[in-house]
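Fill-in record for K+-sensing histidine kinase KdpD.
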Amino acid sequence: MMGFVIMVGGAYRFTGNTFNRRNMYALSGFASVWAGAMLLMPHYSFASFFLIMALRTVLFVWAGCMILKFMPPHRTAGRRLAGWSLIAWGVYVLLFPFFFQFPSLIHPGFGFLVGFHVLAALGFVVLVVDRVRSRAEESEDHVRRLEGFLPICSHCKKIRDDHGIWHPIESYIRDRSDAEFSHGICSECLKTHYPEFNS
């Protein structure tokens, strides 16, 4: 059960959400119900088993719904595959005990389980690849903003933008990147402009 809870937590963080007090209450509630079901297993095996299956179903459906709801819409392939696979897996977990009533469904039932595992894993791989690709594209766009020829004044070193307005080099770069400037003086300028401080 803890592995499934960790999976839901991973899906929650992967979708960009942060943990808060409400999440801790939900996690404590799940852990309490699961521990209670485990303690009652020797006395009420069917009810405990069904409760554990219901908890797994809630976890899988919850993770699938989070992925479908919170992932950016442009990542449709991985989002749909992972989200719907987890939801189907959750419903399957709840229905699986009933397969034992029909011996001919047991083997196909295990095949479905493996299929849902593979589809959910593949969906998560596609989500990760989409995220890496989008971050690479963002980095490319960031670098591209400072590429190409820059018209610069040979005297004051201001840079002309696309609208013909001249900007100090510091403000031009700061507006188009995350760079910050700290000012100092190089040794050549120190000799030329402040010879009294040159030692």
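KEY FINDING: The chain has two domains: 2-144, 159-197.
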